[in-house]
Amino acid sequence: MDTNDRDAPRVVYEGKYQRMVVRGTWEYSERTHAGGLAAIIVAVTPDDRVLFVEQFRVPLQARTIEMPAGLVGDIDAGESIEVSAVRELEEETGWTAEHAEVLLVGPTSSGASSEKVAFVRATGLRKVGAGGGDASEDITVHEVPRASAAAWLVGKMRAGYQLDAKLWAGLWMIEHELDGTPRAP
């Protein structure tokens, strides 16, 4: 065990959604909501379009392209990852899903945060609204043909958008099972 692991954590700041912790020589953030978990939703529409969202992110002071995502348990602490994912998908994109499957859970930035992210595959999609996020969000929904999604993302990157690196993992998960075998259409 690292000596930093034996030191008691000290909270130096706590806000509504995050706290800053010092433990030994480490400084890191923790989510304050239940579980400290976010869900990224990998979703493809019935006409084979990948759902992406665009929004301004204050920490980056830039517009980003991401897959739909949100905090698990921020509204209802007992909410499952799957239920949270479908709720966020609908809120952000206007699409809902018949089924949500957790594919993988892991750290987002293990040197800077204790937050974990769950990749969730949403299937059986059906359009139910306009999307765009809640009253505090200004989200633009992009429905991009799967065959050209990677090229579209590169174009957005070249145009100055910040791209969440997890996008590439999400695209891979559209085409593959976790063991690397091709996914059946």
Automatic annotation (TrEMBL):
One Pfam family, short name: NUDIX
UniProt cross-references to InterPro entries, sorted A to Z: NUDIX_hydrolase-like_dom_sf (IPR015797), NUDIX_hydrolase_dom (IPR000086)
Cofactor: Mg(2+)
Family designation: Belongs to the Nudix hydrolase family. NudK subfamily.
GO terms classed as biological process: nucleoside phosphate metabolic process; ribose phosphate metabolic process
Gene Ontology molecular functions: hydrolase activity
Entry-linked PROSITE patterns: NUDIX
Domain Nudix hydrolase, residue spans: 34-167
Record's catalysed reaction(s): GDP-alpha-D-mannose + H2O = alpha-D-mannose 1-phosphate + GMP + 2 H(+)
Protein name: GDP-mannose pyrophosphatase
Keyword annotations: Hydrolase
Organism: Pseudoxanthomonas suwonensis (strain 11-1)
